[in-house]
Amino acid sequence: MSDSSQKPVLFTTQKAFASRLTLATLTGRPIRISQIRPSSPVNPGIAHHEISLLRLLEAVTNGSKIEVSMTGTVVNYRPGLITGSVPGQGANGGVIRHEVPATCTRGVSYLLIPLCLLAPFSKAPVNVLFNGAGVITSATAAGDISVDSVRTAILPLYAKFGILKDIELRILRRSNPGHRGNGGAGEVQLIFGHQVRLPKTLHLLNPGRIKRIRGVAYCTGVPANNNARMIEAARGILNPMGADTYVFSDVSSAPYIPSVDKANPSGKTKTGIGYGLSLIAESSTGCLYSADVASPPSGGAPPEDIGQQCAHQLLESVAAGGTVSLVAAPTVLTLMSMSSEDVGRIQLGKDVLSADHIIDLGRDMKALGLSSWGFRETTTGHDNGIVVSVVGKGVGNVGRKIA
Predict the structure, then answer these.
(1) Which residues, listed in sequence order, are joined to residue 76 by a DSSP beta bridge?
(2) How far apart are CA 95 and CA 97, in angstroms?
(3) CA-CA 20 to 30 A from 259: which of 120, 275, 281, 341?
(4) What 8-state DSSP symbol labels residue 339?
(5) Cβ proximity of 310 and 146 under 8 Å
(6) C-alpha angle with apex 200: 199 to 204, nearest 5 degrees?
(7) Half-sphere exposure of 187 (CA within 13 A, CB side)
(8) CB distance 137 to 174 below 8 Å
(9) What is the pLDDT along the chain (403 residues), one digit of tens a residue?
(10) Distance between CA atoms of 376 and 348, rounded to whole angstroms?
(11) Across the beta sheet with 187-192, what order do the strands follow?
């Protein structure tokens, strides 16, 4: 919980909005984010998905103070204690129900990944049900990964930090973006029941060799043969690389939402129609590489193109090198910074380390009092690898320490 006399750390623009709020909550440092879309003539200030994230942080913490300016271009955030799904603190029957508005254009993974980072440091287990007309479980054009990739490529990495029990991510109802890119009416539940005082120090330097490829092809409100066409196109590219390839097919009906037609106010319309593919490659040392592609809201992309694009994306992720993929690197680096006061090391590909959001993450961590990173060239024969050394601050679970 932040000290009321502490001056806030200053940030500008909406860039890395979710990451900065998550780091502020973990470290207990107040922050002030200004110049959030100040020049936008139509939608200045914070967007709907950012408001939803602030509401989620308020629900899983106790004592947080959030102030938004009249124009929405300035946010002051003073974090409280991470309490999780504590009865009486917003949880009903041990479950926090978080409704996502229909105007949200980001996938629900935009909310899931920060919540997963906060959950190990919570005072009580976290059980959050995401529902509402704005829940999108598939990948989105904004760069959000699907819930399947969170479940198969992000959550398994927590086991490397000693966080592996009572963790479950359920997709109760699938959905793709609506025809305007927003809304989906899906339903997802995250159960995170393993809380720790401090994560273990991580040493992950050997990427190994790819031993298996798994995936999920999903379609919502469209014929099931779209899945078969995506799988066949992806396997045509992946099978020559390795024999152990299996892609699961999931077919579901499209969810219904209340109609906005004034002529039929009691009617309902289908939404969240589309299809997509999530692939994951696992190496002999337990490293994970993922790829995610979904059909665009406007349509026009045949399933064969989706399958081939996802397969090529997976091969590019593996070719980038390192022991952690680009989508999982922020999670791993954040947990390493929060671990015990020891030096942890991972190997990242040069393309992963040079990504804009990874560089911004390192700068934000330093601004919030976490350790800087050390770099050296790898000496194991992997030409495109950089060994990143991170010293844990030993902040850990303040709520567990108090309890």
Answers:
(1) 32, 67
(2) 6
(3) 275
(4) S
(5) no
(6) 125
(7) 10
(8) yes
(9) 556 678 999 999 999 999 999 999 999 999 999 999 999 888 899 999 999 999 999 999 999 999 999 999 999 999 999 998 877 566 677 899 999 998 898 999 999 999 999 999 998 999 999 999 899 999 998 899 999 999 999 999 999 999 999 999 999 999 999 877 777 889 999 999 999 989 999 999 999 999 999 999 999 999 999 999 999 999 999 998 877 899 999 999 888 777 666 666 667 778 889 999 999 999 999 999 999 999 998 888 999 999 999 999 999 999 998 999 999 999 999 999 999 888 999 999 999 999 999 999 999 999 999 988 999 988 765 556 899 999 998 776 655 444 4
(10) 11
(11) 96-99, 126-131, 187-192, 167-173
Q: How far is it, in rounded angstroms, from Cα 191 to Cα 124?
A: 11
CB 306 within 8 A of CB 340: no
CA–CA dist 362, 348 (Å, integer): 14
The owner of tokens 């990173």 is 373
pTM (predicted TM-score): 0.93
In one-letter notation, the amino acid at residue 51 is I
Pairing of strands 96-99, 126-131: parallel
**Amino acid making up residue 377:** E
Q: Are 167 and 341 in contact (CB under 8 A)?
A: no
54 to 38, 57, 117, 334: CA distances (angstroms): 19, 5, 15, 20
Amino acid 233 reads: A
Amino acid letter at 133?
A
Q: Could you identify the residue written with the tokens 């502020």? A: 24
Instruction: Convert 215-266 into a string of H (helix), E (strand) and C (coil).
Output: EEEEEECCCCHHHHHHHHHHHHHHCCCCCCEEEEEEEECCCEEECCCCCCCC
- Residue written as tokens 């204690």? 81
Contact, 279 vs 215, CB < 8 A? yes
Asked if 253 and 220 touch (Cβ cutoff 8 Å), the reply is yes
| Tokens 């704005």 -> residue | 134
